[in-house]
Task: structure prediction
Amino acid sequence: MKCVICSGEDVKEKEVEEEIRVGNDIVLVPVKVMVCMSCGERYYDRRTMKRLEEVEDKIEKKRLEVEPIGKVLKVAGII
Ligand SMILES: [Zn+2]
Result:
């Protein structure tokens, strides 16, 4: 597989933490995706996209256990 962004040929399956937004929270979901070793571009297949949607849905319905590891903070105004 070749990277469409940088044309790099070193694209490998890697475990990454994908960030999804559920309401005001950010949830890190460990998933295996193809990652370009040159530029870091991530490639998601349909199955992974679907899994992430399912995870989001389960968290919204409180059907999946998550643990707090930090807070999501926001700067009060434009700097
Ligand atoms: Zn690339």
